[in-house]
């Protein structure tokens, strides 16, 4: 299905509390759809609403009982967030008041908005493409300024424009390659004359660059998972506490203290790093500890980085060697602990209680995690990376075929698939199912 406004008949008028639950200075009930203006008039008791103007009013319920003093704003479509008539009722930010105002809007003809429905309407009414709609959610979810900036770049349309540009270049290439298929008997090698090869490499390079910017954006919002693993008593929980700056995990001199996974978030260069303390790795008959070890091994598989802690007083044992061997090779870093007690060599050494502190661990984090590139990151989601990877695979296949003087048909097919996949990012090509999955993750009122 192709996303255009005709597909969307805005019959229903929707309403929801747009501000977060809880209490705040001000709270907003937002209404969108054909009845918005009438609802604004009814709830505010006013005779008229000047477009895009803040009116002071007393909001009343359907029996005429006063609910709140507030401000009402009317945005006639299409110059509104959703592209439809929108009314905002700004009241005091408490649950009783806002639920009362929302109920008054329902009584005047509105229906409850679904999660993300305002933004979904903005998309369906061509106010924004899908990457922008998703950036709205990224922006709201951002809890670092770097993450918010990346989301804003995408909200302003930067991601969508980059994708569209790639799509146009692919469209040109397709036209050329498909055109050449109509002259199979010509002597001239059409694919060679049009520099299809060169143009394709240029597109692939831009795609790689875009993938990097989007992947940094995903990282900014999702952060990194760093697992502290090691044999019992290595000092994992002490390290977690020290990095978190609070006594999060129980620390004792007994081996096998930790069983559950404990998580603490820290910030590093604008990125979130989630540190996970785990049960000491060993074979044991204790069923509780065994479950802890199982969970630790599971988590290691999902980690971006695993620190394997080794007690420098104990030295590197055969058990350490065995556990180290089970860790993912490309994501493991050995770390001597308790360096205040014993000088260790070979791997970076840290101490939670004395010299050299935990600086060497931070150095390793900076060395091993891709923390750079935040400056031009684009707010994006895992879904976008998957699409870009699919596009890259198709284009790699096209390039391979070209290099081997393979059939133009195959090249055309790969280009078509790549081109179509790109459309899933901006929503040029979308299904109701895709929209359903995307907007279900939004909050009500967004
Ligand atoms: N009170 C309030 N604050 C808000 C929002 C809102 O809906 N209400 N937003 C909701 O997310 C964000 C702002 N986004 C908005 C985007 C477009 C339009 C809008 O009316 N656009 C018209 C007019 C543009 C103009 O005058 O330049 C348009 O695009 O035609 C409004 C809000 C953040 N702050
Ligand atoms: N001197 C010194 N002692 C430490 C340091 N880190 C941990 N310890 C001690 O080592 C012992 C074990 O520390 P934990 O942090 O509980 O070790 P763990 O790896 O979490 O152990 P399990 O949960 O049993 O797997 C405790 O007595 C800590 O006080 C350190 O940097 N210096
Ligand atoms: Mg522990």
From TrEMBL:
Main subcellular localisation: cytoplasm
PROSITE patterns xref list: G_TRME (PS51709)
Gene Ontology CC: one annotated term: cytosol
Keyword 4Fe-4S: no
Keywords from the named record: Cytoplasm, GTP-binding, Hydrolase, Magnesium, Metal-binding, Nucleotide-binding, Potassium, tRNA processing
CDD domains: trmE, TrmE_N
GO molecular function: GTP binding; GTPase activity; metal ion binding
Cofactor field: K(+)
Ranges for domain TrmE-type G: 223-370
Binding positions for GTP per the UniProt entry: 233-238, 252-258, 277-280
Subunit structure comment from the entry: Homodimer. Heterotetramer of two MnmE and two MnmG subunits.
Task of the protein: Exhibits a very high intrinsic GTPase hydrolysis rate. Involved in the addition of a carboxymethylaminomethyl (cmnm) group at the wobble position (U34) of certain tRNAs, forming tRNA-cmnm(5)s(2)U34.
HAMAP family the record matches: GTPase_MnmE
Protein name: tRNA modification GTPase MnmE
Organism: Thiohalorhabdus denitrificans
């Amino acid at each position: 299905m192709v996303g255009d406004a005709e597909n969307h008949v805005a019959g229903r008028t929707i309403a929801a509390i747009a501000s977060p639950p809880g209490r705040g200075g001000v709270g907003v009930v937002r209404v969108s759809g054909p009845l918005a203006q009438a609802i604004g008039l009814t709830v505010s008791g006013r005779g008229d609403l000047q477009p895009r103007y803040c009116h002071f009013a007393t909001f009343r319920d359907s029996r005429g009982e006063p609910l709140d003093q507030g401000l009402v704003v009317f945005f006639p479509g299409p110059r509104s967030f959703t592209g439809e008539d929108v009314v905002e009722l700004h009241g005091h930010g408490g649950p009783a008041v806002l639920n009362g105002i929302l109920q008054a809007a329902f009584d005047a003809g509105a229906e409850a908005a679904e999660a993300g429905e305002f933004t979904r309407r903005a998309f369906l009414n061509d106010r924004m493409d899908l990457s922008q709609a998703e950036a709205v959610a990224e922006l709201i979810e951002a809890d670092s300024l770097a993450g918010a900036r990346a989301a804003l770049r995408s909200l302003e349309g930067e991601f969508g424009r980059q994708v569209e540009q790639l799509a146009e270049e692919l469209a040109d290439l397709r036209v050329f390659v498909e055109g050449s298929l109509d002259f199979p008997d010509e002597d001239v090698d059409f694919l060679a004359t049009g520099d299809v090869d060169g143009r394709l490499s240029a597109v692939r390079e831009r795609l790689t660059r875009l993938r990097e910017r989007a992947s940094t954006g995903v990282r900014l919002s999702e952060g990194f998972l760093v697992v502290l693993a090691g044999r019992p008593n290595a000092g994992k929980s002490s390290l977690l506490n020290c990095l978190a700056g609070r006594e999060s995990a129980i620390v004792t001199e007994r081996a096998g203290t930790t069983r559950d996974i404990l998580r603490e978030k820290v910030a590093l260069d604008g990125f979130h790093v989630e540190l996970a303390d785990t049960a000491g790795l060993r074979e044991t008959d204790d069923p509780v500890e065994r479950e802890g070890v199982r969970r630790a091994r599971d988590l290691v598989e999902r980690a971006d980085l695993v620190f394997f802690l080794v007690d420098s007083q104990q030295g590197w044992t055969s058990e350490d060697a065995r556990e180290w061997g089970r860790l993912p090779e490309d994501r493991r870093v050995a770390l001597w602990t308790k360096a205040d007690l014993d000088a260790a060599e070979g791997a970076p050494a840290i101490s939670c209680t004395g010299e050299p502190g935990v600086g060497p661990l931070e150095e390793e984090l900076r060395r091993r995690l891709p923390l750079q590139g935040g400056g031009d990151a684009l707010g994006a989601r895992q879904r976008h990376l998957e699409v870009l990877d699919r596009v890259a695979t198709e284009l790699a296949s096209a390039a391979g075929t070209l290099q081997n003087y393979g059939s133009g048909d195959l090249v055309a097919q790969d280009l078509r698939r790549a081109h179509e996949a790109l459309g899933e990012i901006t929503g040029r090509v979308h299904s109701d199912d895709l929209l359903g999955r995307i907007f279900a993750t939004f909050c009500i009122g967004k």
